[in-house]
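Posting this for the archive.
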Amino acid sequence: MNLILSQAPLFLLVFVRCAAMLFTLPLFSMRSVSRIAKIALAAYLAFFILGSSDLSFYTPYVQEDGVASLQFILIAVGEALIGIIIGFFVSVIFSAFSTAGQFIAFQMGLSAASSYDALSQVENPLMGQFFNLVAMLVFMQTKWFQVLFFKGLTESFVSLNAINIAMAGNQIVTFLLKSLTSLFADALVISLPVMGTLCLITITTGLLGKAAPQMNLLSEGFPVMILVAFTVIVFVMPDIIDFFVRSFNKGFSDLELFFRSVRGGV
């Protein structure tokens, strides 16, 4: 407590970045997670980072008596922006898996079976929710949460500050647009085996409908497509999980490269 009180302005800056990241991260951004719990976790993270990181860069922006200067508010806004970028980028990675589930659900005929998804906080088809939950389990099983909190967040204070972000507006926009492009590319790669198989079944069903119009293929086609889709998902699930892991690795590597480029390659 004495450390927090003696360095209250610096603690507030660290707290703002941690809180902004937590409020935009998947799982933690859920409405069912108490705001008090989020704020408490952000305060604990800020306390540990304050004692282990060098924050001397912000010292000129804090007066000797501990009262923040007028520039302190802009610095706090920059810290919040850094936390939002980190949380938003991780959310984009998870959105790729949810989008892949939506592609598959549309091809299966289950796009109408939508309900509220607590993870993405939007109306999401059941297959999108399934892939989202699998991605969250893989994310936790591979200990990326620990890497994000104990390494990524701590290293972000070493390599990046609010001044760098203020001077890198074009790089931020380019990075976010590239992330959205990768979102749809990854979603297509994940859903391609199932969508390709269902596309062949649809073509076959159309040919059979032309050859034998008296057959009621409309009522028989959807159960067959759903059964085949789940069968293909079961067989390709190991490869999908491996792609999940590689997507997380690539995503965090891109985030690290972005931080280095903003700082000037240091």
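DSSP finds nine helices and two strands in the chain. The chain has a mean pLDDT of 77.
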